[in-house]
Design a protein that fits this description.
The complex is a heterotrimer of chains A (396), B (429) and C (307). By secondary structure, chain A is an alpha/beta fold. In chain A, 38% of the residues lie in helices and 8% in strands. Chain A contains 14 helices and nine strands. Chain A has a five-stranded parallel beta sheet with strand order 2-1-3-7-9, sandwiched between helices. Chain A has a two-stranded antiparallel ribbon with strand order 4-8. In chain A, strand 5 and strand 6 form a beta hairpin. The N terminus and C terminus of chain A are likely disordered. In chain C, the strands form four sheets. A three-stranded mixed beta sheet of chain C has the order 8-1-9. In chain C, helix 1 packs antiparallel against helix 10. The chains are: A alpha/beta (396), B mainly alpha (429), C alpha+beta (307). Chains in contact: A-B, A-C, B-C.
Chain lengths: 396, 429, 307
Amino acid sequence: MTWSRKPKTTVAAHLKRCGVPRREFLQFCTQLMVAAPFGLAITDKATAEEVAREVGKARRPSVIWLHFQDCTGCTESLLRTSKPDLADLILHVISLDYHETLMAACGHQAEAALSQAVKDNAGKFVLVVEGSIPTKDQGIYMKLAGKPALNVLKDVAAQAGAIIAIGSCASWGGIPSADPNPTGAVGVDDIIKNKPVVNLPGCPPNPYTLLGVVFQFARKGTLPELDELHRPKFAYDRVIHDHCPRRAHFDAGRFTLQYGDEGHRHGWCLYKLGCKGPDTHAGCSTRHFNEIPDVWPIGIGVPCIGCTEKHLAFRVPLFDLVPIHDATPPDTYPPVHTSIGSISAAGVGMVSVIGGALGGAAWAAARRFRSSEDEAAIIEARLENSDKDHPDVEGR
Amino acid sequence: MKHIIVRWQRGVPVYAVPKITPFFVFLCVMGAVSIVLSAYREWAGLGPTTGMNDIYAWGIWKTFNTMVLTGLGSGGFSVGIAAWIFYRRDLHSVMRTAVLTSFVAYFSGLVALGVDVGRPWNFYQVLMPWTWNAHSPLLEVAVCMPLYACVPLFLENTPPLIERWYYTWPRFRPFIMKYLVPAIGSTYPYVIALAYALPMMHQSSLGALMLLGGSRVHVLWQSPFLPLLYVWAAGFLGYACVIGVLMVSCLSWKRPMDMRILGVLARIMSWLILTWSVFRFLDILARGQIGAAFDFDRFSLLFWLETLLLVCPSVYLLWGGNRRIPSRLFLADVLIAVGGMLYRYDPTSFAFTARPGAVYFPSAIEVLIAAGYVCLAIAAFVLAAKYLPILPAPFSGWYDMEHYARVVHPDWKLEIHDLSHQNRPNFAN
Amino acid sequence: MELTRREALRSVISKCVPVATAALSLPAAEAAEMPPQPKAPVGMLYDTTLCIGCKACVVACAEANDLPRDVSLDGLHQAPEDLNAFTKNIIKLYKPHEQSPDSFVKQQCMHCIDPACVAACPFKALWKNDGNGIVAWEPSRCIGCRYCEIACAYHVPKFEWDMINPKIVKCELCQPRLAKGYEPACTSVCPTHAVIFGPREDLLSQAKERIEQAPDKYFENRVYGEHEAGGTQVLYLSHVSFEDIGLPDVGPAAIPARLKWQKRIYKFLALPLLMYAMLASIMKKNWIDHRREMREEEERTGLRPQL
């Protein structure tokens, strides 16, 4: 691939110069919109044309892709995009300056390519990390050109403009971190603490999620809104269970109990087979895989394994049931007389305080009256008769 | 000058006490808190600040501050009828206290009403008769109460103010003598008559409000005579409040009490209560609901609580010399006030079972605002009693104050009469 | 001169009673007190035996009235539990326990012939259309006093407690749709025609026909709303008791009839003015006595008298 020393042209100009039909670019933008319907700064536009305009203005972002303890599945997922196809993507839309699987160079040439790419685009390139990083024994379990992955990551990340950890391995450790984790595999954000890292967990994640993040960075220089695990909210805010096409079966109590049984053939809910959907944040239920509708685990009848979640994937047995966090839909027929209103403790306290104060004051006043009346009572009884003689004039 | 038999003859300001006391500061702080919280309620809406909900749509502001406390503040009306319509000369000395209590109670009740409505910007319609739904009892209340508070009640409260100006503002004196006093003299009878006609209307309309509650108001309260019972209750509650206010004021400011006048007030109140109770019982009997009083559920217990709180102290006060003994009168009066307030409050709340499963309790903010308005009313009363000649005292009390004023304010020109008459003590100073 | 109680009473009776009897005992007066009946009342007939609880009517109502999502229950699911500021129409289920007979019930405004809310509203913000009889709410007149909520026996009007500009929310029979010639949203989507729309007369006769054709199917063989509260424009046929499905036993009298003595007493403000005249005349007499006594007191004590 080319790493041009010229200032990067905009994506639109580049595509035009290379003769990529606009229709294909628009299709790519439509895919982006599907992948990231909201929450992505460049795709909150109404039409593909508008997105195209936005994306077109982006300068072809420089992307450096590092592989560590990976299976290359995330790259494979990227390869399965067809709008645009990979060639268009890496030649025209982004500037993929270093990618071990796809680059032509090898050996010393590859090493030089990496250092050159880092130097040329220092502070501006997007670093995509695939695969976990071993940390045990000074990180000798994965080396790149003789250098431990740990050091490579730290050096390259120091110069990066944005860091994206693609895949569960880079996000939190993935398969290599499964018990007993002999290599001390961890995710990127366990090592890089001083820069924001966008985690895109999944095994593999949807490639359009990656592209959405890259383009927002290229166009706006910002990263999308992230949740507390640094995952972009536009793709990871919902659990599978809340948008699963088989949810009605779950709600109605229709479950598959064994692979191949009647329920399985009818497409019933897979919860009892250990589906981790209720506890897994991902968008697979809407953005399927390989760009073929319904090609995603539950769609083809296999329960979700929770591949995005650190506490589930490669830890909890596949057939174990997960707890349901959000309430099941409420009993949807309310009773004829629904209860309403509440009694606040603060209100009760306030009323009791005031009532007590008033009662106490009344009692204290009565006591003071009593003490003053003793002398007056006797005298007044004696002098009552003088009332009738002098009704209105004071006695002096 | 120690007087064993005290006769209240005229109002005298409370002198020789500090104007600002810790209690007064506390009242002002509570008042300020309620004003701030009211502003917050206007900004945030009724939902977040109160405990009201769609079934108990009226919280304590409309029901307690407006319905109950203005009943308590009916002293100007009920004592006034005895003092002016039935011309009880001896009650004239307490009239100023009674109308001032009414004034502060009504204004605080009206402010609470204003804070309670959810869309106050449309309230201007109260000035446009063509927008009125004349059959609605709430309209009658919304028109009649402010009218009463702003016109006759306000005018009834101006004489103490004018009197103070007369004594302390010599340059204003000619104007007072030439215009104000004759104006008062010619219009006062009509103003006072209005001041008794209007409360009869709106206090009964307050009762009529719950007529529309139908069977949701428990049978022991719901009656076609609810308006009459309410205005009657306002009558004796007014007496209870006036007696209580007089006694507490005299106690705290060390003024002598005239047990004879207080006894008269108590006797009138007790007879009002007893006849009211009989009427209420007859009404329940006539509607065939007397069985409900013996159900011993929470409603019948509430009913008996009210009745006992009202009837027992009344009988007690009519008995022998109990009225003349301050502590007994005070305790009986407090119980009567509580019982009367309970009666007026029940049909809107405790005896109002709107729907099974619905509950209401005021939120802390609601309670604070309600309490704060009451504190403002009390603070206004306290301040007025210290500056204006309101609280009753014997004639000697006036001369004592005059002497005190001369010593403390030598610059005041208190000489008012060229009549150097008999019986006027000569203060050689 | 002190006015004795006897004299005062005599004065009252002599002046008031003849006037009162004359003004109030006319039978014509009673008839004139009834509010005008709507000319062509429309309404709905709801039959619990046909309702399947699909809640299409709830959804249609929310859509037609542009209501916000009612997630008041758990903040997530649109499952209204009751009529409220976001819900004008709701389906509830009466089923106290597993073995009991059960029934769905649709709750919304009953559009009474003589509505309590209209009689209660101080500024006519809730008003009844004298053509089709629909009870509607006018924001420019409402002061938010919520008296309508207290007055309505069916607990229909709801208040937007959490808004700074709160409205009263209730079913208004989709007046904009009616104006265009459509039916109300709920009746137009009901798959089993459990709730139907039409002129009240027709619905009433249809209901009675159903009762005739299936005796003892419907509770007490009668229609709720024919006479209740003076008649309502929304009628109910039920196979369980009306009380169970939340329709209270309000009796045949219209609820505003409870205010009839109030209306009579305040008619033309005659009695209040009479009362005022009486009080003023007594006061005038007492005032003269009072002035005289004040002069005497001033002479005696040298103090300017107080009022």
